[in-house]
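Help!! Second protein's tokens look totally different from the first
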Amino acid sequence: MKINNKKKCLYCNQQIQGEPFNHKVGYFCSEEHFDAYCETLSKEELALLMHSICPCSDEG
């Protein structure tokens, strides 16, 4: 499997092998790692994240 040396998973901080799960907030090994990352955030951090990825937001 091809290792993408430039991208690391935002959740596990491991080099991503193959195609990353690309999300507006960063790259993840998989959608499961994105979900797990969201679960580690406080309510305030999660609210800021959701606001930043909202299609009507100009911040992202």
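Here's the second one for comparison:
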Amino acid sequence: MKKMIVLFLISLFMLESCSVNSEIIYHQDASSTSATDIDTREFMAEMKAMTPDSLKQNEFAEMDKLPTTWTSIYELEKQEGKLKTANPDTIRIMKKIFMKSKKENNQPSGFAFKMEYFTPEDYRALKNFTKEEKLPLDQNIFNSWDGKTLTIDTENFNLKNIEEALRTKTSKEESEKMEGMMTMFFKNIGTSLKFENKIKSITGKHDWLKQTDDYSVRIEYDLKTLYDTEAKLKNADQKIVIITE
């Protein structure tokens, strides 16, 4: 797991057009499933172009060892011999978070994270887990969902989890410049929220949130506005409530 996260973080520092796309599916039993896809194709092309042929075999050998099928972070840490916890709640959460590397034309093209059927109890345990393990997870997974009603806290329209993951790999000087770095690193960041039942009503508005069909809404982050303390949005309600049928 550590190797995969390190490679992801390196890709952010090397690339100025990284795309991150997330999807959260809300189930009728009050659980939710989320997935985050990180596209690093441009980074890999640039990295290979800068690496001498004599070093490519060694430099990219570790990437080829990363699993290309969904593997829990529990299994990844066991395989690396780095599983240090016996806490049952932590182990339960680790077994429900999956990661994999992606390939295109047999070449590395990105990474993906997935969390399946997380309950409100799981999310409480996840908050404790991420105090130690900094993962680039979508903040919107922590919104309140009871199986019919989703209450969105627009304070979660941020990139804090990615920022914290990056800070663990930066110098103090770089960390202080994080806001400026974020607008350079990312080209597109967005999250789709999907429901098993039709959307009945939406109360509250935000410039970045739009309904895309009867079952979905989409959040598209405006990074320039996000990091501009003087920027003003036309619609910026703190709470958005989506009720499904």
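Reply: Different proteins will give different token patterns, so don't panic. Residues 2-14 form the longest helix (13 residues).
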